[in-house]
Design a protein that fits this description.
The chain is an alpha/beta fold and 338 residues long. It has 13 helices and eleven strands. The strands form two sheets. It has a six-stranded mixed β-sheet with strand order 2-1-3-10-4-11. Strands 7-6-8-5-9 form a five-stranded mixed β-sheet, sandwiched between helices. Helix 8 crosses helix 13.
């Protein structure tokens, strides 16, 4: 169990170290391919729960893999949206499922810091899930209102700072990477905008277009069309280097914002009770599906870089993200009652 002091120390070390994401990806690629599970699994349709509304980034990732995964497994994979509590409602249903045919397309927060945000969270990310595989990863885009004053990152950041605490930033919920990332950015940029949580990123964008909020950290796939149309402006991406998901955008580092490198991801997780042979069979199918050209292209068009790997590599990423995001929670005193 990480103490507050150890977590903060590890959080600081995480931001000082370089190449963590590359090391994680290397582990995923070099790990041995999982063996196929028993032929008897699955013997009925598989429920794939998503904790956000239709059209949200995790939903798009889940729907990109559902049909080809169905073909490989020989049973329908049915996507079911269970939005609420920053994805934790769906995560709790996955954790408690006893039918051996319920899995989840879950995000960073569900599989890492849910318990740190709220000790009353009814599931334990470390104990209640069997990691299966990543699906995709992406940086976030710092987006601002289309009528924001400025035409380059430095000017747009100045505009955001000048909003003071009258400005609002939207997120898909308390404890999501969009929330924790913006709180981290506030410490690096002197932005003082206050938090306005929504049920998903489509609702965040709707609020931005209506002028109800002024800033958000958005997935590239959702931000790009609105930036291209001029309805929103983009400051930069949170990755250390420019992202192929939005290649023309600079990084926040290029605008002299340091120590705010972040990445979102969606992964498949199963209840801890799912037999390991079934986990291995599901992982093997996911590796084939996510690495296929068709699904890579679908994920890319939805704003994700395909990034499947072994259960072990996902477990490693869960641990490192718990340290990074947990440090933000402790530093900013963030709590959730959901």
């Amino acid at each position: 169990m990480l103490t507050k002091r150890r977590l903060l120390q590890a959080f600081a070390a995480t931001f000082c170290a370089s190449g963590a994401w590359a090391q994680d990806a290397s582990r995923a690629r070099s790990a041995p391919r999982a063996a196929a599970g028993p032929a008897a699994w699955p013997n009925k349709p598989v429920r794939l729960l998503v904790g956000f509304p239709a059209g949200a980034s995790p939903d798009l990732a889940a729907r990109a893999i559902a049909e080809p995964l169905s073909k490989l497994l020989g049973q329908p994979v049915v996507v079911e949206n269970r939005p609420g509590a920053s994805g934790n409602l769906a995560a709790d249903q996955v954790a408690k499922a006893q039918d051996d045919h319920t899995i989840g397309a879950l995000i960073n927060g569900n599989l890492t810091i849910a318990k740190l945000l709220n000790p009353k969270t009814p599931f334990d990310p470390e104990k209640d899930f069997s990691p299966v595989s990543l699906i995709g990863t992406a940086p976030l885009v710092l987006a601002v209102s289309g009528d924001a004053e400025g035409s380059n990152p430095e000017q747009l950041l100045l505009w955001a700072r000048n909003l003071g605490d009258t400005g609002k930033y939207g997120t898909p919920g308390v404890g999501t990477v969009g929330h924790l990332g913006m709180e981290l950015l506030k410490t690096r940029t002197s932005i003082r905008a206050v938090h306005a949580p929504f049920t998903g990123n489509p609702q965040v964008i709707e609020a931005m277009l209506a002028g109800k909020i002024q800033l958000a950290l958005l997935p590239p796939g959702l931000a790009k069309p609105h930036v291209k149309s001029g309805k929103l402006k983009a400051v930069g991406v949170t990755s250390p280097e420019r992202s192929p998901l939005f290649a023309e955008l600079p990084t926040l580092r290029e605008a002299n914002v340091r120590g705010a490198d972040l990445e979102i991801w969606t992964a498949i997780a199963a209840p801890a009770s799912l037999p390991q042979a079934a986990v291995a069979k599901l992982n093997a199918a996911l590796l084939e599906v996510v690495h296929s050209t068709e699904v890579k292209e679908r994920l890319l068009s939805a704003g994700w870089q395909a990034n499947a790997g072994t259960p072990q590599s996902l477990a490693y990423r869960m641990r490192t993200d718990t340290t990074q995001l947990g440090g933000v929670i402790l530093m900013r005193g963030i709590r959730s009652d959901a």
